[in-house]
Amino acid sequence: MAISLKESLESLKNQTSAYTPSVMMLEPNTEPEITVDMDNRTITVPSELQTIGVATENNAETVYIRVPSITFDGIDLTDKTAYIYFVNAGKEVNIYKVTDVTVEDNSIKLGWTITNDVTRYAGTVSFSIAFELDNSYKLTTTPATLTVLKGLDIDQTISKQDTAIVSALYDKVNALNTKVDNAVNSMDNSVATINSLQSAVQSLQSELNYIKEHVVYVIDDIEN
């Protein structure tokens, strides 16, 4: 029974070693772009951009959308106003008028700054792109989707000063592992000892699960 507990704790310690929360930041000039086929009315979102941000972020990210400047039937989109229609994860509908527009060769590059209207709720965001051709006609795409990750309440966020919390969890893992080793070596397999260790493992597991579920990133890496 004690050996089984030790194996369980070893597995728990491996989980903490493998878990390194982080957020990948991409350079604006090298990150992938969303592409639009106005002839087929489709939007293609690269996998790197599928996750658009964290709930409640505001103006933290600008994604770029590449559209051919001329449609198959000869409509020139370079002087047309572009809009992004979106439905956030809370089912709220909104419109973003694109003002960051760059014409490059045979395409148009649209900049969409992700505001908190988009990220107000965690979950799936649906969006489509439209060009206003005149007062009575719009050219629009079929919808595509993006994902907003769950964030934390501001008073629960782990900041630079709070990384000691995570370090303390690692210390707890090491301390519990030592206790298990001692119990096994001394053949102390009493019910009270095993129950005490098992309770400590469960408590630590709950803390680690909370971190994994709710913490999106830690500002500074923890020095081992």
Q: How would you describe this structure to a colleague?
A:
- The protein is an alpha+beta fold and 224 residues long.
- It is built from three helices and eleven strands; from the N terminus they run αβββββββββββαα.
- The strands form two sheets. Strands 3, 5, 6, 9, 10 and 11 form a six-stranded mixed beta sheet that branches. A five-stranded mixed beta sheet has the order 2-1-4-8-7, with no helix packed on it.
- α1 packs antiparallel against α2, α1 runs parallel beside α3 and α2 runs antiparallel to α3.
- The two termini are 32 Å apart.
- Share in β-strands: 25-35%
Unreliable residue runs = 16-25, 215-224
The helix fraction, in percent, is 25-40%
Radius of gyration: 25 Å
The first-to-last residue Cα distance is: 32 Å
In total, how many beta strands? 11
- The global form is elongated
Structural class: alpha+beta
Q: Sheet with the most strands?
A: 6 strands, mixed
Q: SSE string, helix = H, strand = E?
A: HEEEEEEEEEEEHH
Keywords:
224 residues, alpha+beta, 5-stranded mixed beta sheet, elongated
Question: SSE layout and pairings?
Answer:
Elements: H1 2-18, E1 34-37, E2 42-44, E3 51-54, E4 62-68, E5 81-87, E6 93-97, E7 100-104, E8 107-113, E9 123-134, E10 137-140, E11 144-149, H2 163-185, H3 191-214
Parallel strand pairs: 1-4, 3-11
Antiparallel strand pairs: 1-2, 4-8, 5-6, 5-9, 7-8, 9-10, 9-11
Summary, kept brief:
The chain is an alpha+beta fold and 224 residues long.
